[in-house]
Design a protein that fits this description.
Layout lengths: L1 E5 L5 E6 H9 L3 E12 L4 E10 L3 H4 L7 H7 L16 E5 L14 E5 H7 L4 H4 L19 E3 L11 E6 L2 E6 L2
Bound molecules: zinc ion.
């Protein structure tokens, strides 16, 4: 079970495990807006699993910066191949070491770009210059990610979230958007 976290101004912010959400409740950082029917029981507590929670403040979560991950690289790049510019669902994207690992390139924000499979294949183990390809934008370390790029599999969006976000389906991926 996942919990949809909303910003203080009620737009989708993140999706976390219910365990994380319960921790946030006990820390007093969120208020619960919707619950699942399932109960969570332990010797000391019994509560219904949180479905939607609103953060009271955003600051502490944002300060940590954006974790380096495949999906966050795609989000930073708007799910667009940084060579040909085509926008693709997640399963049709790969990530590219701009300076290939065989030439000492590291797996860091500044050296990883979203890439479609055909461009990835074309580039191979070469730098963009060596391959005669041009990056649309040099990769960088993002300070935050635009919330409209919170992607989930469409079947992972439970009915309890209706009214708090709308989903735009893109193949197997669902894009969580603010309502209104
Ligand atoms: Zn491409």
């Amino acid at each position: 079970m996942k919990t949809l976290l909303l910003t203080p101004w009620m737009t989708p912010h993140n999706v976390v495990s219910w365990e994380t959400a319960v921790t946030l409740i006990f820390l007093g950082k969120v208020e619960i807006l919707e619950e699942y029917d399932e109960e969570i029981r332990s010797p000391s507590i019994s509560l219904r699993a949180p479905a939607v929670a609103r953060l009271k403040k955003l600051v502490s979560l944002v300060k940590r910066g954006v974790k380096f991950s495949r999906i966050n690289v795609f989000s930073r790049d708007n799910f667009r191949c940084q060579y040909c510019g085509s926008r693709k669902p997640m399963r049709e994207l790969n990530y590219d070491h701009v300076i290939p690992r065989t030439q000492g390139g590291r797996t860091v924000w500044e050296n990883i770009a979203t890439c479609c499979y055909p461009c990835n294949e074309r580039k191979g183990s070469r730098t963009p210059e060596q391959a005669g390809m041009k990056l649309i934008r040099a990769p960088f370390r993002p300070r935050s990610l635009p919330i409209s790029h919170l992607y989930l599999e469409a079947h992972q969006v439970p009915p309890e979230w209706n009214g708090y976000c709308i989903t735009a389906s893109d193949g197997g991926d669902a894009l969580l958007l603010a309502t209104g």
